[in-house]
Amino acid sequence: MGCSRVGARLAEMLAREGHQVAILDINASSFRRLPQDFTGTALLGSGLDEASLNKAGIKTADVFIAATQGDNRNIMASQIARHIFSVEKVVCRIYDPLRRDLYGELGLETISSTTIVAQMIKDGLEQQES
Predict the structure, then answer these.
(1) Which is more confident, 49 or 97?
(2) What DSSP string describes 2-42?
(3) N or C: fewer beta carbons within 10 Å in the chain?
(4) Domain 5-129 belongs to what topology?
């Protein structure tokens, strides 16, 4: 869910590796980020809407990734995927590191791009100082 720069890139990478990919976004213009040779399926709809999720094939999905730019949407969609559709592997992108920790404690696999990028910058600064 989410055809942002990260979502589009991830969908492209997974599709190129031969995975069956469906990417869902509420904004049709977001799909312009996908390459022309994208072999997955791009669907207009919300990851908070059961009908959209069904159309995307969530009932047979091995993985659900929430990668929109909204923490609340990502959290809600991840909970729907996990608790309503019983998707085994759910990954939720979270910007707010405090939320990441909280939802991690509740059993959601969360990734905070804020924390990751901050650590990468710090590591780069430390390497330059050496």
Answers:
(1) 49
(2) --SHHHHHHHHHHHHTT---EEEES-GGGGGGS-TT--SEE
(3) C
(4) Rossmann fold (3.40.50)
